[in-house]
Amino acid sequence: MKESEVGVYPIEDCPTEDFREMLDVIYPTSKQIDIWNVEKMLELSDRFIMPMLTQLCDVFLNDGIKHNFTEIQMLTLADKYNLFLTRTVECAREDSLNCSSTMIIKTEGYGTLTYEMKRFVDARYVKLDVQER
């Protein structure tokens, strides 16, 4: 392989800035995960199979003080990137501050969730004993 001879491996379909930011996040004492880069870090951690980075993003998302993602946004990220902690916490919350289960079910984002995530949301819906959808 020509790449191995020169020590350069091209990464297609990944902007240099995004890859550099990912490296800044994963190296010790470097850039923190924030509301501006968490989604991109999840995308790159999934693409490059980096469970440690996925876990850092999962932990960040569960500190509600650091971001203002809506409940459906959190569920969508948890679903798309298989974020166990985020899914568990969001589906266990009974005190939805901004969005009830009925509102989640009525959102456009609900339709994009996988069958498994819809089951989690529906189980919460039933647990809350909501009478109508």
UniProtKB/TrEMBL annotation:
Source organism of this protein record: Pristionchus entomophagus
Pfam families on file: BTB
Stored SUPFAM superfamilies: POZ domain (SSF54695)
BTB domain sequence ranges: 2-62
PANTHER family: BTB DOMAIN-CONTAINING PROTEIN-RELATED (PTHR22744:SF14), HELIX LOOP HELIX PROTEIN 21-RELATED (PTHR22744)
Designated name of the protein: BTB domain-containing protein
